[in-house]
Write a structure and sequence with these properties.
The protein contains 17 helices and 15 strands. The strands form three sheets. A six-stranded mixed β-sheet has the order 2-3-11-8-9-10, sandwiched between helices. Strands 1-7-4-5-6 form a five-stranded mixed β-sheet. The chain starts with a helix and ends with a strand.
Length: about 475
């Protein structure tokens, strides 16, 4: 009897909590629909709301000197403002990945946006805040590509001139699309931070409005609308969201929205090992420059997280993890194979942490988890290389060097082993000049396609019975 009562009380409490969160969201959305302008700022005081400033002129540093407070109301207003102008991306349960990972995995496919990434949400919301004079003068931004694409796409629709300063090694597809959408594109600097410094140092852009792609308050609010949609699209309770993190804006927006609507939901941040700027900021207690090197997740290669984004994200993030280049490549492969989706490295970084061997794989077992696939803008040649790396990381593309006879039939015997075991030769190389042991021997290096890591191990075992071999690393 007492057990039944406890269950009823628990269930009633859960219903009450859900109703409260739903009512909070409905009130905020109703306010957004009934007002085209943001509500006035609260009077100054200890708990006063700071009126967010969307713009900074280029004569000043693009980085905000002190964090600006952002609340759920801004996200709800952004949700009302951009509805109908950006796509409601699908959020569906992946059967195959759920089985593979041992959890109920939902994928929020933000690569379905017109420009291929979630950045449209924040860019449009920020552009809608501009005065007529600011629209006439135009906007400028530093971007690795996706934010620039979003500004260019919505800027031309609103009649706003757009200039994008991109790192010199930005993906070619993103550079060309920005130009195609009508933006002036300037390639400058090795990363986003250097591109921002270029804007701040150049006086010819001082009359334009700078829109930070990850730290502008209205950009963060726009990104947070993904969290609202996750709550509406996923049936039942969401136990965790796993968010890729670069400059921190997406993490801050989704974290704030999810924790407001579902306080028990865990928020995990995932960064590439080659640019863990949010982890560095957490360790230092403030945004600091993190060591950065080339990464498949080029859209997340932001050396210093945004001040506004960090102030929010540190409050609502439960755990921060990093993933290797190998795991990112494997996540891109999994999206292509299981979901038939072309996802860029940064967009697949959240999924990378959930795969077997990832930092969060065991932690989310048996739970309902949502991951935003936040971008799909990747150069086709790069996509091909990433897929090959993913196959290597999965043990399905292997490299082996065997010492075989240089006489007729020597290589035939080697390839006969491959044929017998069903391994396909992708590439083959002969090496004679640097083999000094025997003149009638030759090194033959083969790149093989196999069905699985287990299949590759069987091939290796058979080769070791007949030859001296060197088995290459998976990546």
């Amino acid at each position: 009897m007492m057990q039944t009562v406890r269950r009823l009380v628990f269930r009633y409490g859960r219903i009450q909590e859900a109703c409260t969160c739903r009512a909070l969201h409905q009130r905020s959305v109703a306010q957004a629909r009934n007002s085209t302008e943001p509500p006035p700022a609260d009077p100054p005081g200890d708990d006063a709301e700071v009126e967010p400033t969307t713009t900074t002129t280029t004569s000043e540093s693009p980085v905000e000197p002190k964090p600006v407070r952002i609340d759920y109301g801004m996200i709800a207003r952004a949700h009302g403002a951009i509805r109908g102008h950006v796509r409601l991306s699908s959020c569906y349960r992946s059967h195959l990945l759920s089985e593979m990972l041992g959890c109920d995995l939902y994928l929020k496919a933000e690569l379905q946006q017109s420009t291929g990434s979630f950045k449209e949400r924040g860019a449009l919301n920020a552009l809608l805040q501009l005065s007529n004079e600011e629209k006439f003068r135009g906007v400028i931004a530093a971007s690795a590509g996706n934010h620039g694409l979003a500004l260019a796409w919505h800027g031309i629709k609103l009649g706003i001139p757009t200039t994008i300063v991109m790192p010199q090694f930005a993906p070619l597809s993103k550079v060309e699309k920005c130009r195609l959408y009508g933006a002036e594109v300037i390639l400058q600097g090795a990363n986003i931070e250097e591109a921002k410094q270029c804007i701040a140092a150049n006086t010819k852009w001082q009359d334009m409005t700078y829109i930070n792609g990850y730290d502008d308050p209205h950009v963060i609010a726009g990104a947070g609308t993904i969290g609202i949609e996750m709550g509406e699209q996923v049936p039942g309770k969401i136990d965790a969201v796993v968010v890729p993190c670069g400059g921190g804006g997406l993490l801050a927006g989704i974290g704030l929205a999810m924790k407001t609507l579902n306080p028990k939901c865990k928020v995990y941040a995932v960064e590439p090992e080659n640019c863990a700027s949010f982890r560095a900021a957490l360790d230092a207690g403030k945004p600091v420059r993190a060591p950065t090197s080339s990464t498949l997740a080029d859209g997340l290669a932001v050396p210093v997280v945004g001040a506004n984004a960090f102030a929010i994200a540190r409050e609502f993030t439960d755990r921060t993890v990093t993933v290797s280049e190998r795991m990112i490549a494997l996540a891109v492969l999994r999206c292509a194979e299981t979901e038939k989706l072309t996802v860029e490295g940064g967009g697949a970084t959240g999924l990378a942490a959930l795969l077997p061997g990832g930092a969060l794989h065991n932690e989310v077992a048996g739970k309902t988890v949502v991951v935003p696939l936040c971008g799909g803008n990747i150069d086709i040649p790069v996509f091909g290389r990433v897929i090959e790396r993913g196959l290597a990381a999965d043990g399905r593309l292997v490299r082996v060097t065997a010492n075989v006879s240089d006489r007729p039939g020597g290589i035939h015997e080697l390839t006969a082993v491959f044929a017998e075991l069903g391994a396909s030769i992708k590439d083959v190389y002969h090496e004679r000049a640097w083999l000094h042991s025997q003149v009638d021997r030759v090194h033959v290096t083969c790149v093989l396609e196999v069905f699985s890591a287990e299949h590759g191990q069987r091939v290796r075992n058979r080769l070791e019975e007949k030859y001296e071999i060197e088995w290459g690393d998976t990546l």
